Amino acid sequence: MARLDRQITLAHALQSLGLQPGEARAVPRLPGLPEPAASWIMAAYRQLGGVLSSPILRPSGWDIQTASGLIVELDEEQHFNRHRAETLRAEWAVDLPWQVDYLRYCADFERVALKSHSGAGFWTSAGSARQFGPAGSRRDLEGAGSPRWKQRAIYDAMRDSLAASGKVSLARLSVHDRLGSIRLGDALRGLAPLDLQELRELLLARTTNSVYTPASSASIPPRAGSVGNTDSAPPEPASTASATFRPTELAKRLGYHDESRPGRVVRAYLRERYPDHPKKARWLLNEEQAQDVLENVPPHR
User: Fold this and answer.
1) Residue 260: what pLDDT?
2) In 88-103, which positions are buried (b, 16+ CB within 10 angstroms) versus exposed (e)?
């Protein structure tokens, strides 16, 4: 199951808990981060081996944004490795409610990320190499390592810094989290029931108290239940702001406004990048895939 499918399943479950979709919020940018977050991120960038004196860091949109103001990020296998752990050990990050669990996941599941997310654009890209230098040998994290993994870690840290400085209310959930005896990633894939009461408790435990305090809010009502495989039709996907991107939209961002079929250049790249994609199926890209396109498809000249 693709990343977006798991995100949609989680968004639907959050709706069942009373968290309705909300309007898109501005995503973190550098330059543009407020202090002290900007200083924290520049220090993290240097620690991760960033090579630019004035980096331009532009993560894509938040995963799930709710009407209550709470933002929920779903972190998949590729987010857990030694580079992410470096950002989580910073003094400003120690009180983040996911810090302890995430450090453990970075240690325990780096091997999973290396096995499943070290190929092609997951390991390096033109944009990440500009920020962190050339990549080392694939699956070798000693020395140069993976520029894309470092870029992903700094982008996650940028989101964390806004939560730590009280600018947003953020909850991070991981596919490695456990809901009772069930792994959250398996439940989101439909391989096991998704217990809503367990999910609610995890969400409450992982939410920063800076802007939105879930323990005293009625926006997550106590409700037991589960979401699992049934014989009925699947629910309509929940709205997730900035979650999907179409080739034509990305092509226009790259300057292909005046072409008769502006999305053609992006689709050509995608066919090469994802050869197993069904030929007649339309392309709906998640934020990481969109970032890959914007960094590797040449802009229109």
Assistant:
1) 57
2) bebebbeebbbbebbb
Under DSSP, is residue 200 helix (H, G, I), strand (E, B) or coil?
A: helix
User: What's the distance, CA 150 to chain centroid?
Assistant: 14
Q: Tens digits of per-residue pLDDT, 109-126?
A: 999 988 877 776 778 888
DSSP letters along 36-61, please?
THHHHHHHHHHHTT---SS--B----
Residue whose token pair is 């391989």 = 191
Sign of CA dihedral 272, 277, 282, 284: negative
Rounded to whole angstroms, the Cα distance separating 163 from 211 reads 9
What's the rounded Cα separation, in Å, for the pair 143 and 247?
A: 36
Under 8 Å between Cβ of 285 and 250: yes
Give how far the C-alpha of residue 2 lies from the chain's centroid of Cα atoms, to the nearest Å.
Answer: 13
